[in-house]
Amino acid sequence: MKKKEVKRLLRENPDFEAWLMQDASRISSIRANPETAGELFRRWNDRKKGRIDFGTISQKTKRASEMLTNMTSIMEMMADYNKKQVEQEP
Length: 90
What we know:
Blueprint: H1 3-12, H2 14-21, H3 24-32, H4 36-49, H5 54-88
């Protein structure tokens, strides 16, 4: 990887750049050999995939809960309607 490619990679992935800044040895290894940036990026990306995004999960859970509440409400209305129909039959 050339220096220009490393700069572009860092510009496109500010989280990766922040991760690199956390450890001085990572920065020095990239400065000594820009080729290591690709390997470090793969390592960072794999580590990132393992994280659980609780914000997204909570949003999806809230949406599923709302949908289930709506379905329960509809089912209750249908049950009430059926009870009224049965009571009205002679």
